[in-house]
TrEMBL record:
Similarity section: Belongs to the low molecular weight phosphotyrosine protein phosphatase family.
Catalysed transformations (reactions): O-phospho-L-tyrosyl-[protein] + H2O = L-tyrosyl-[protein] + phosphate
Enzyme class: hydrolase
All residue ranges annotated as the Phosphotyrosine protein phosphatase I domain in the record: 2-148
Species whose genome carries this gene: Polycladomyces abyssicola
Protein's recorded name: protein-tyrosine-phosphatase
Amino acid sequence: MVSVLFVCLGNICRSPMAEAVFRHMVKEEGLEDRIRVDSAGTGDWHTGEPPHHGTRRILKQYGIPHEGIRARQVKKQDLEDFDYIIAMDDNNLSYLRRMAERNHQRLYRLTDFIPDTTYREVPDPYYTGNFEEVYELVSAGCRGLLERIKEEQGWK
Ligand code: 4NP
């Protein structure tokens, strides 16, 4: 089983959107028994909450389920438990690197998986209000990530 954890700040906007989008893609490809998907936040303010209404609205618009997703804070054990840990921005990545204390081989930015993008970070829609921009980056990043996993696992 390959495991993927998406990480943002609050775990109510960007990373739960990525969790829902990626899980949907994985299911469409019939890989749900082979890939486990989760998300978490570096902050703990929203623990137990469902995704932000902006994230819920955009997922609904694109026909992607999000039932059952609840916010939680990332913990040290996650760094051991997950094969691919995908940060939404540089602050999230620095937080994870500090938490890891040593060189961690499986930390990435979502934008690492988007070919030819000018974006390095996924802008935080909690402040920008632009959930459509996030959806476009998240879907492109998730597509690239899934292709990478399939290559690395020899599934293609
Ligand atoms: P997210 O957005 O990291 O994409 O979930 C945020 C959500 C909540 C807060 C910040 C960012 N907050 O400060 O409560």
